[in-house]
Every structure is written in C-alpha cells, then in structure tokens.
Design brief:
6-stranded antiparallel beta barrel; 15 strands; about 375 residues
Amino acid sequence: MADETMTTPASEPQPDENRQPDAGKRLSPQRKAALLLVTLVLIGSWFGLRWLVHSRTNLETDNAFVEARVHPVASRVPGTVVAVQVRDNLLVKTGDLLVELDPADYRLATEKAEAAVGLAINETSSDTSQVSAARAAVQSAQARHDQASHDLRRGEALHAREVIAKEQLERLQTGQRVAEAALREAQEQLKRAEAQAGLNAGPGAQARIRLRQAELAESRLRLSYTRITAPADGYITRKGVEPGATVQAGQPLMAVVPLQEPWIVANYKESQLTHIRPGQKVSFRVDAYPGRRFSGNVDSIMAGTGAAFSLLPPENATGNYVKVVQRIPVKILIDPDSDPEHLLRMGMSVVPVIHTGRGFGDVLRELSPLR
C-alpha cells in the first residue's frame, strides 16, 4: 500500500479551458495613456475651435454702460425760491410744477407795463385830439382874418368917400394885422400838434403803442418763468434747491431723466469692429440683474475713438510712441419689450454680445493661410 502511494505520480495542474489568453489583447499602460491623451487633445481642440468661432462671430465686451437722456432744469430768471414741489427720484410728467419763485417783483413789473400801454394809448388819443383842436383853431383864425380883411376893404372904400374918419380906418387896419398874426400862430400850433402826434412821420403813434405792448408781453413772460415745470416725463435726479434759496438765471436746480428710451454705449476694441454693422442683433446681461437677458440692436458706430474726443487727446506725433489698442464707442438701442419695467438705470455696467451673423465657414476661410 505504501509502495502504491509512492509510485502514483503527482497530479499535474489541468489547463483551464475557459481562460482566455491576455497576450496581445490587453492594452498596455503606455497605450492607455496615449489614447487618453489623444482623446483629450481632440476634445480640447473641438472646444477650442468652437470657442474661437464663437468669439469671432459673437463679439463681447465688458466695457459698456447704460446711457439715457438728461434734461437739465434751470431757472430762467433770478429770484427767491418759495416752494419746491418734488423730491429726489420722484416720477414726474411733462408740465408738472417743480419749483416756484417769488413772483411779487415780476407781477409788479407786469402791472407797470400794463399801465404803460394804457398811457401810450391815451397819449395817442390826446395827440389826435390836440391836432383836431389845432385845426379848428386854424379855421377860426382864418375866418377872423377873412372878416378883418373884408372890413378893411370896406372901410377903405368908405374913407375914400369921406364917410368914416381916418381913426376908424386905422382901427380896421390894426384888426386886420392882429387877425393875420393870430392865423399864423394857429397854423404853427397845428404843425406842432401834428409833429407830436407823429402824423408827419408815418405810424409813429402806433409804434409807441406796439413798443409798450412788447414790454408788457416780456413782463408777462418773465412772470411765467417763476413757475418752473418739468420739460419731459422722467425721474428727478441731482436736486440741489430748497425753499429760501436765491437762484440766478441759468443756475441748474435739478435734472429729469426719462427711462423710456435708454441705450448702451459699448466701447469695443478697434480690432473687433471689422464685422460690426448697424442693425445687428445684440443680447446683453446686466450686473444688477444676474441671470436675466436683455436684447437690442446696433444703432451706430462713433465717428472716432474715445481718446480722440477726450478732454486731453494724445499727441502721438511727439515723444516716444507706444501703440495702444484703441476703443471705439458703439451705440446699442435697447428693445422696449425686453425691459418693460424700466429697470435699467444710467451708468449700469452691462456685458453686450453682438451677433454678427457669420458662420463656421466664414471664420475658417478667414483663418485659412490659402485665402
């Protein structure tokens, strides 16, 4: 028994028929790394190309701000403020009363102008009456002169026939000379009256009346300026006037900012303006309202760079020159439907994206070295 145990050969391991050989089928770590690297390169290239195309077809900048019209409100006449009817950030309508000035001085000036018009009319009427009276006086003096001349001729005839004495004839001669002098005086009075009434110099009397009427209209206009009203619909900003203050003509008191038609001024780099055209669609976001998108369209491109119209434009022809990429303002109109609540305010920072409408092929042709 022990011999059989010793002589029986040890059992050899049998090959597993279900096991597949790994040689030549399992990827080595080097190949896996290479495959992963190629995949990452292809994905990165794809996203990089998409980003490049997107950046060239949808132009974006963060140098953009909301702008709106500003209507300054200033006094047109000097005076003392007696009432201020508005407060900061209040919505007002066109014609609403904003500020009242003390109207006492201007009301008094208006009353004086009205009196001056009445006096001018009375003076004209008086001058006309004086002319009429002077003409009547001339006619009366002419009649007395004619009567004295007739009496003198008759007295001379009677004296020649020795019917009357010489003394009586001399009295008739003296009466005729007195009547002649009175006629000349009346004629001179008529000339003076006509000159004063302006009848010898055209429509002088009517000119005086029109002058006084113009002064009256000016006084009434200045009186109306004591009530300062809103020039447009909008919100009150920069209010700097209180009751009791003394203001001068042209002094700014406040401003009215309408928010119905704001726009965006986007300062794009000059290298981004190649394909920007008026009318292109724009989408933008505002820092104050994250997650909300607004829309608009390109209205126009400024005629020069911002530096060219600055207070101190650069002098590139002097000294050392360092090239700096310039920015050109682009005006973007905001669609009213995208902001019905008028949420946008002046000076808000926005990030607009101009959709130029160019495609993938346009960008590739532009980048191709064979073009």
